[in-house]
Target: Probable dual-specificity RNA methyltransferase RlmN
Amino acid sequence: MSDQPKPGQLTLVAPRRGKPQRHLADLTMDERREAVAELGEKPFRADQLSRHYFAKLTGSPEQMTDLPGDSRERLVSQLMPSLLTSVREITCDDGMTRKMLWKLFDGSLVESVLMRYPDRVTMCVSSQAGCGMNCPFCATGQAGLTRNMSTAEIVEQVVAGARALARGDVPGGPARVSNVVFMGMGEPMANYKAVIGAVRRLVDPAPEGLGISARGVTVSTVGLVPAIKKLSDEGLPVTLAVSLHAPDDELRDTLVPINTRWKVAEVLGAAWEYAAKTKRRVSIEYALIKDINDQEWRADLLGRLLKGKLVHVNLIPLNPTPGSKWTASRPEDERAFVRRLESHGVAVTVRDTRGREIDGACGQLAAATPAS
Model:
């Protein structure tokens, strides 16, 4: 019998120990120059490499004709290694929503999603392979944590989306990634150092980074209070999104188990400190789950907690995972929840449910992809 995979069959390698290879996106510009010098090249070659990667979105050495031919391959292999291997890509919304499943060097699977709107292009990226927060309604949380991703592995997801736009793979003509949300697989604040490094690569002007406005970057958390406080002092005016999902500790202890460590009052207190320091409006993420957290009295409680604060509520119709008892709220309950929040003067919107037909919830595509 042949050991070769059948056409269309996915073959995953066994996980390998170690770390992903160093990439220039892991490094500051000064560190890139040092790395290039260690390879026996002039430091300014780091600027050229950075311009190819972040500004020109160049993917192959053959296109880097301003680099010496005898050192081009070595520089690229050492500082621009391939970190993501495409496993699967599926689209909906006439090609405007594209979900990508990637294999990392050790066989771990992560997902990212590109969503094109009339006025913007948003990339939703993963920060961990899996997640250790164990939220019972989340596909990723139920899979557990495999490992943290590196800064460059996070950035590569955005660069891949930018290259797809540049190639014309996404309908609608030329465009650039304008928004990045850390709402894919993983708890960003549990991989703090790599995530902050990625944010800096995203917002630094080219050729140091991609030059995306910090106001277009959203970092989410289930409520790791020390990390929220640390983020307040980074000088990065990104949007903080708190995945609250319940206004009362009794329910939130079940829906978001980390709440047994940091209660609702502590989490919101840290969020208000962040808003005061950065002058940025905090986003409260709230997945509406049928008969679990969608009661009007809970909307009233949430409204009282948020009233008068620099805040916006993003209600999320739950995208149910296969076999789960958790499902989206009834439309009439969703509307009633919105009305109760608005009665307290709280700004609220219901999230666009793009990607539902392509396993849009984070972790669903990875969970549905069998290893052979």
Summary: The chain has two domains: 24-79, 85-368. DSSP finds twelve helices and twelve strands in the chain. Residues 332 and 372 are 44 Å apart (CA to CA). The first strand starts at residue 85 and ends at 92.
